[in-house]
Design a protein that fits this description.
homodimer, alpha+beta, 4-stranded antiparallel β-sheet, 52% helix
Chain lengths: 188, 188
């Protein structure tokens, strides 16, 4: 849980009693590579923090192809926030890309946790604002970048990540075919 | 300020003293149609709440064309959150689509406001989570919808909005040419 606690402490203070309380109310879930935390048609039950490993969020499009829309590495949160907030069925899957250790804050625990540790409101306000800020930039990139620019931008922003995930997943995230990505890699 | 206060009170409680304190620390800004709250190259100085009217967030692309990425109507917040959070220069413009009344929480006031009224952390955590949830769905739509489906989806979700904004702005938001949108409107 060390990544989790260290990450929180960058933004808020926690006494050791509060730390213990928090740890007693979250779940640590070991997730094997390719195991699912959410599948289409289910309601997203928790907000997931990657203590160690990597998760991906994807949907299956009309043509039956997996389209990845988000990744989460160590110290990132991931969920289908529409499904989690509104308790509606999800259109997404969340799956482990590697063997991972996940910390889950389950929805039914969330309000109790926030009322006992109100500083978590601040922590998640900052996390959500950051995620939304990145999402705003991403909308700009969607409109503004050619395919090749998207790829160059992504490898410049996340060089280690590009080494770590399978290339076909990177292609899916960028909206490329795997063949187009191979071509680009030879060229760039 | 009535929309602003009512909106807050849907999510958090405020005593009348707290309400007064809050109102003393925010700015009410009348913004004429076509006036700017932010221009490219400036640092975004505040988080803006639309008390009355409509704002748009856009950037100018390589071809010199305005590309709208977000709108905000009554009871919505809008800012360049990357610029606001990181205090970096913005790549966007925020402009009034109509004569509007805006409530601004300025960045230099924000931390004092949060420390005096910590329930605002909860309010903004909920606002940001909601905005991010919508952004996650939007990434799905970008990949999943044809141009015609994007248009149908948008008019189904926001019928009044479609009546209210100029058609060329709707075209820009959807990534269409105005000509393509006219064609679609005749057809749908």
């Amino acid at each position: 849980m060390q990544n989790f606690i260290n990450h929180l402490k960058k933004y808020i203070s926690l006494t050791s009693d509060e730390e213990q309380l928090l740890l007693s109310m979250v779940k640590t879930i070991p997730v094997k590579k390719k195991a699912y935390l959410l599948a289409e048609g289910q309601v997203c039950k928790a907000n997931y923090f990657v203590e160690q490993g990597c998760l991906r969020l994807f949907f299956i499009n009309d043509k039956g192809i997996e389209q990845i829309t988000h990744f989460a590495l160590e110290n990132w949160w991931i969920a289908d926030y529409m499904s989690l907030s509104m308790q509606v069925k999800s259109q997404f899957y969340i799956q482990a890309v590697e063997d991972s250790t996940i910390i889950a804050i389950e929805r039914h625990q969330q309000e109790e946790l926030f009322s006992k540790l109100p500083q978590l409101e601040r922590y998640f306000r900052i996390m959500m604002q950051r995620a939304y800020a990145a999402a705003q930039m991403r909308v700009k990139f969607f409109h503004d970048y050619s395919k090749e620019e998207s790829y160059r931008h992504f490898i410049a922003m996340f060089p280690e990540f590009v080494q770590r995930i399978p290339q076909y997943m990177l292609a899916s995230y960028l909206g490329f075919t795997p063949e187009y990505l191979s071509e680009l890699r030879r060229k760039v």
